[in-house]
Write a structure and sequence with these properties.
By secondary structure, the protein is mainly alpha-helical. The protein has helices spanning 2-18, 26-41, 44-57, 64-86, 91-108, 112-135. It has one domain. Keywords: Membrane, Transmembrane, Transmembrane helix.
């Protein structure tokens, strides 16, 4: 189901940027981007990307999980401040929203199952909402 939500949210993001200019509100783009990021983190592709990002972070002289945890702690308030301050979905905010679930999985280390459960719960919320919309 994560792949279905990933494809659906990707299509929605493309349509929001190309065709539906009047629906391109900062909160709509933020919600769809968060659903995209959570569903990406729940797929095998997201696991591969998290592993690649972990390999890049491990090139630093400190622990990659520590760097990921610090980045999560810095990016969450930065994204919230960015959305609240200017009420626009800037590129850096969308990129940070996409990276946050992947960084969360890296930072969780020994408790990675709980990080996976969190992204699965958000993906389940999105897929149930999508099922509700489709069923009428």
């Amino acid at each position: 189901m994560a792949w279905l939500l990933l494809i659906f949210s990707t299509g929605l993001l493309v349509l929001l940027h190309k065709k539906w200019k009047k629906w391109k509100k900062w909160w709509v783009v933020g919600i769809v981007t968060a659903l995209f990021a959570s569903s990406l983190a729940s797929t095998e592709l997201g696991g591969w990307l998290a592993g690649l990002l972990r390999s890049l972070l491990n090139l630093l002289p400190v622990s990659g999980a520590l760097v990921a945890a610090v980045l999560v702690l810095l990016l969450v308030p930065a994204v919230v401040y960015g959305f609240v301050h200017d009420r626009k979905a800037d590129k850096w905010e969308m990129t940070a929203l996409i990276l946050l679930p992947l960084l969360f999985i890296i930072a969780s280390g020994p408790v990675a199952a709980h990080g996976g459960d969190l992204t699965d719960a958000i993906t389940g919320f999105g897929s149930n909402g999508l099922g509700y919309l489709v069923s009428g």
